[in-house]
Amino acid sequence: MKLLRNTWYAAAWSRDVGADLSTRELLGEPMLLYRKHDGAPVAMIDRCPHRFAPLSMGKRVGDGIECGYHGLQFDCSGACSKNPHGDGRIPPGARVRSFPAEDRHGLVWIWPGEPSRADASLIPDFSHLVSPGLKTVGDEMTQKAHYELVVDNLMDLSHVNYLHAPYQQVDDFLQAKHDVVQDGSALESRRTVAGTRAPQSFRPFLDDPDAPVDYWLNIRWHAPGCCLLETGVVPAGRPREQGLVRIGTHIVTPIGAASTQYLYASSRNYRLDDPDADDETVRWQQMGFHEQDKPMIEGVQTRMGERELFSMRPVLLATDAAAIRARRLLAAMIDAEARSDQPVPAAIA
């Protein structure tokens, strides 16, 4: 599995990482996650180098851990700190690989590349997740598909008129102007439909659901799998600042070659304390992500098998522009990293 290594991946929601030892599969490895006494997150391979027992089956010893099988202890950097056997000498190879970890914007992030290059300022901005001016509802799921197929689905929003109809269907959406803009190593896909019928997902929250609105969907991709989707409606002709806005968080982290961890959330600027609005969000996430996106993406993976997308010579449509550019940009970044981290071109055709 080819991966971009010198980058940040979301390992879990912050709320799901505590003092207790927890484990999940990420980036082709079993990952042990927990917090030190000061609250800082720790991430390391969940495998003792002695007999390969899951360290998550051990126990906490201070800020370190003790293997539950033979009692070797490791500090939070992964170095063996105690060998209870024989003369107590610590074997040279008694070390567990650990990863730089950061808690930012309600997420725990890990850096699987060169530790000296881990820079927390490179974590994509998902500060809306913890904004007091927004109400956020989210969860996570696993998709049995390559992570790039999940990104493809997010970057090609034309599918909402079909896969998510009638809940997200909008008149004239497929004919609306579609811009794809590159900003360094990030891409943004922008669509606006002026003077249209509001999609069903917004109609219950509009004063006049039948009045024409300006509707927009802008999705921003940060390599390798972080997407921020802003959708909104406003009475036709009015500034967007006066509209109803939802910011969607969609972050995918590879588990294996054909499985993906998908963290998702919706942050809205209206009815912040309305439990009915919360319930509507949860209902849509269940229907849209679990019952519609998931089986379709997994079906695509099944039909593709182990073959790579471009090797199958897919027929490309105009709406594929953002997804294809994201794939090509990511491939260039991975290739550049493999060639001693040479700079990636500023623009990828």
TrEMBL record:
One of its GO terms (molecular function) is monooxygenase activity. The keyword Electron transport does not apply. InterPro entries: Cholesterol_7-desaturase (IPR050584), Rieske_2Fe-2S (IPR017941), Rieske_2Fe-2S_sf (IPR036922), VanA_C_cat (IPR044043). SUPFAM superfamilies: Bet v1-like (SSF55961), ISP domain (SSF50022). Signal peptide: none annotated. Gene3D superfamilies: Naphthalene 1,2-dioxygenase Alpha Subunit, Chain A, domain 1, Rieske [2Fe-2S] iron-sulphur domain. It comes from the Bacteria. Keywords: 2Fe-2S, Iron, Iron-sulfur, Metal-binding, Monooxygenase, Oxidoreductase. Residues 8-110 form the Rieske domain. It holds the Pfam family Rieske. PANTHER family: 3-KETOSTEROID-9-ALPHA-MONOOXYGENASE, OXYGENASE COMPONENT (PTHR21266:SF60), IRON-SULFUR DOMAIN CONTAINING PROTEIN (PTHR21266). This is Vanillate monooxygenase. It comes from Paraburkholderia steynii.
